[in-house]
Specification:
Oxidized Rhodanese, domain 1; alpha/beta; 3 domains; six-stranded mixed sheet; Metallo-beta-lactamase, Chain A; 21% strand; single chain
Length: 469
């Protein structure tokens, strides 16, 4: 059977392409749709359907653009209400893609409209099921996102729906079915996802905590809701873009891919409330950067960190990028709904300096230098609470990067302090945010805990409560 998973690691997202007998379907496409069109052209196929498993929160789907460019029909599950033309499938409704059959199975729980798609080949044999955020490998979708859109859909109510959907709609299916989820490890749509991105349903029945046969509904709710982190602020904004539609990515790129010389860049920065976003390598940012700019490197978990730290997707943005990666950066920002890029600095930092503008830097020391003085200065650990609890520098306090906006008051204002993460990426983001707000007393530790492990510094390795309440 011809089904391909198209996985995008930076947002831990999987789209799917199915083709048979000259017809193709796309499931949960990304915002940039040309690769799907090119894939269908390669097969001499026409995209007839764009299936959506639900209104995504963690990215803006490409369904609207793809339908406009191909004539394919958008399909959502029961209860979905769209501001554009789409098919609202009823439970168990079947669609034909060539000689393949796609059956919509309504599985409310992650969201009310969540729907899985059971795929059968030309002989009627079921092959796999595209589960969206209903069932992951090792986990299931969090049920606390839809309440951001409707107060009536509490996480407790949706968790109960999800329990029923899994027991009555998914678990009775054949063990040899291949599970094709929308996300893998690293996504904020679950809490315990495997790095594997497919598996058989039979293996998941054995190994996924949420599919235990002897689990009661209340036990399910308790385990599912325990330890859920606060969803990023951009999630409900992305949901509304997916419901109401959005400006074409082609239009966004055309107006955002604007080269600005240093003088133009400075004028726009002064006349607007634009965020100066530097996406270069962290080591380049440490050495020199434009004062008050924020670092979020394009080669790290770029889009999710932008979404987690910049609360409004309408925020105007000015870019400082590696040469030649301007369009890529704009595209990846738009994946998570940030469509208001005003332009980028032509010539980068070198042009900025040549024009006579000043730069700033982040004081950074090696792990060995840190080992000589770590007992005398406060240490802040910017990693997740789970990482901090598992292994940390003695007396370090935990202010995770994704919580920094809520815990600025906990940061020492005058006396110097050290900050580190796991490998150096997050601590530079953390430091850049603090510097932009007038803090200049942090000392970044190069290579983070991975470098600290190689020094004589003793690490506390037992689990204890997080310092953040």
């Amino acid at each position: 059977m011809k089904i391909e998973q198209i996985y995008t690691g930076c947002i831990s997202q999987a789209a799917y392409y199915i083709e048979n007998n000259g017809e193709a379907a796309i499931f949960d496409p990304l915002r940039e749709v040309q690769p799907y069109i090119d894939r269908a052209i390669k097969d001499n196929a026409k995209i007839t359907y764009i299936f959506e498993t639900h209104f995504h929160a963690d990215f803006v789907s490409g369904h609207v653009d793809l339908a406009h460019k191909t004539g394919g029909q958008i399909v959502f599950g029961p209860t979905a209400k769209c501001a554009y033309d789409c098919i609202i499938a009823h439970d168990n409704q079947e669609f034909k893609v060539g000689n393949y059959t796609i059956k919509a199975i309504h599985t409310p729980g992650h969201t009310l409209e969540s729907t899985c798609y059971l795929i059968s080949d030309e002989n009627g044999k079921t092959h796999g099921i595209i589960t969206g955020d209903t069932l992951f490998i090792g986990d299931v979708g969090r049920p606390d996102l839809a309440q951001e859109v409707s107060e009536d859909l509490t996480q407790d109510v949706l968790a109960g729906y999800l329990f029923d959907s899994l027991r009555h709609k998914i678990m009775p299916l054949a063990d040899d079915l291949i599970v094709y989820p929308s996300h893998g490890a690293g996504s904020a749509c679950g809490k315990n996802m495997s790095k594997e991105t497919t598996d058989t349903l039979g293996n998941q029945k054995k190994n996924n905590y949420a599919l235990r046969a002897d689990m009661t509904k209340e036990e399910f709710k308790t385990e599912l809701l325990d330890g859920l982190a606060t969803p990023p602020a951009y999630f409900p904004q992305n949901v509304m873009m997916n419901i109401n539609g959005y400006e074409s990515l082609d239009t966004i790129i055309a107006k955002s891919l604007k080269s600005l010389n240093p003088r133009e860049f400075e004028i726009i920065a002064n006349q607007t409330e634009a965020l100066l976003l530097d996406v270069r390598n962290e080591n380049d940012f440490i050495k020199e950067h434009i004062p008050n700019s924020i670092f979020i490197g394009i080669d790290g978990g770029f889009a999710p960190w932008v979404g987690a730290l910049v609360k409004d997707v309408k925020q105007p943005i000015l870019l400082i990028t590696p040469l030649g990666r301007e369009k890529e950066t704009i595209t990846r920002l738009s994946r998570v709904g940030f469509d208001n890029t005003l332009g980028y600095l032509s010539g980068g930092i070198d042009a900025w300096k040549k024009e006579g503008f000043e730069t700033d830097s982040i004081k950074t020391i090696s792990p060995d230098e840190f080992a000589n003085d770590y007992k005398n200065i406060q240490v802040i650990d910017a990693r997740k609470p789970s990482e901090y609890n598992a292994e940390r520098v003695e007396k370090a306090i935990n202010i995770p990067l994704d919580a920094i906006n809520d815990h600025i008051a906990d940061v020492p204002k005058n006396e110097p302090f050290y900050v580190h993460c796991a490998g150096g990426y997050r601590s530079v983001i953390w430091s850049s945010i603090l510097k932009s707000r007038g803090y200049h007393n942090m000392i970044n530790i190069d290579k983070g805990i991975s470098g600290i492990r190689k020094t004589p510094i003793p690490l506390t390795t037992f689990v204890c409560p997080s310092t953040l309440k």
